[in-house]
Write a structure and sequence with these properties.
Elements (H helix, E strand, L loop, with lengths): L2 H19 L10 H6 L4 H18 L1 H25 L4 H30 L20 H30 L10 H26 L2 H4 L22 H19 L3 H19 L11 H9 L9 H6 L3 H5 L1 H4 L10 H4 L4
The structure holds zinc ion (2 copies).
The site of one zinc ion (ZN) has 5 residues, from loops.
Length: 340
């Protein structure tokens, strides 16, 4: 197949997976508040979406395999380049590769978002600001220092530990990529595991005896910006961010390519959740923005466990919940669902 066509297919599949996996509850284009307002249970609605994804993947794996066949060679060629760049050394790939890949993704994407806050440009983006009345509160220098500290002094030791844990568990360390259906199912499983890990650890961090010692730091500003996503206490970064993300790949013994794909989704989703803008065609960050504004609701990422535990009752009554969907229009959701 022509190189550019193969490249385009790979990019499209990657972007689709990006949007789909990072926005399960609202990925089918219908705000889940609609299901709620109609009287059905939103938790069931979210679970149905998830089961739908599993069913499609399981029943239509033939087509996914065919699709992967079209772009898989390209992905394999890219992976070969990465693999050889680290001298076919699994340790170097798992530790230094993961560190460089996740950190550069964080800064490149994060700065794209945060520079809008910093410079106020492009002006056309400002209409998508969620807390449009809030003045910009975040000191960039301080955020950059803390995030770099977490990435280097917490992230690198954690990746070393993760490498030995993965070896102890046994993982797919080969150069050959797994089949496409397996990558999709494993990433979906990682999404679920991270939801469980993040929800309960995050809720624990909000316990009145623990909050002021650790998590208060992440809540220093009620209106976050993308690069402040990893602005937190090192203990929080270890327990809530890194451990909940590793849970899926560790349980499954995933291939490093699958892990990197999953890490890129979660980095994107974390940055998007903190960016403070509800852009069209991107997952809605309304739920986590609401958490930063109100503190005591929306502990999870997907919202499934918030439904289950009823920790989204106030959110569901709010305008933010009405705006919490993947917008496919250039009209800002605030205009579609105004405050009054
Ligand atoms: Zn946050
Ligand atoms: Zn919190």
């Amino acid at each position: 197949m022509h190189y550019h066509l193969r490249y385009s297919i790979s990019c499209c599949s990657y972007v689709t997976a990006f949007l789909f996996c990072s926005s399960f509850p609202n990925c089918v284009g219908q705000p889940y508040h609609t299901a709620y307002l109609k009287g059905s249970n939103p938790a069931i609605y979210s679970s149905c979406n998830l089961s739908l994804v599993f069913s499609i993947v399981a029943w239509r794996s033939r087509y996914f395999t065919y699709f992967w066949g079209a772009s898989g060679d390209f992905a394999q060629n890219c992976w070969d380049v990465v693999y050889e760049a680290f001298g076919s050394n699994e340790f170097a790939l798992a530790v230094w590769g993961t560190f460089l890949f996740t950190s550069s993704l964080y800064w490149i994407l994060g700065l794209c978002y945060s520079l809008i806050d910093w410079t106020g440009r492009p002006a056309s983006a400002l209409k998508y600001k969620i807390q449009s009345n809030a003045s910009f509160q975040v000191p960039f220098g301080k955020v950059i220092q803390v995030v770099l500290f977490n990435q280097i002094f917490v992230g690198i030791p954690f990746f070393i530990l993760a490498y030995y844990l993965l070896n102890w568990r046994g993982y797919d360390s080969g150069k050959d990529l797994p089949p496409f259906w397996r990558i999709v199912l494993e990433v979906a499983f990682c999404v679920l595991m991270a939801e469980i890990g993040f929800y309960y650890s995050h809720r624990l961090l909000h316990h009145r005896r623990i909050y002021k010692h650790i998590h208060k730091m992440h809540h220093e500003w009620t209106s976050p910006t993308a690069i402040s996503a990893m602005y937190c206490h090192p203990v929080e970064h270890l327990v809530s961010n890194l451990m909940s993300v590793l849970l899926g790949p560790l349980l499954l013994g995933s291939h490093m390519f699958t892990s990197w794909l999953w890490f890129s989704l979660i980095v994107f989703n974390t940055l998007n959740s903190h960016c403070g803008f509800h852009f069209p065609f991107l997952p809605s960050p309304e739920n986590h923005d609401f958490h930063h504004l109100n503190l005591n609701e929306n502990y999870g990422g997907l919202g499934i466990l918030d439904k289950f535990h009823g920790t989204d009752s106030e959110f569901l009554k709010s305008k933010a919940s009405q705006r919490h969907f993947l917008s496919t229009s250039f009209v800002p959701v605030k205009q579609l669902y105004p405050d009054s």
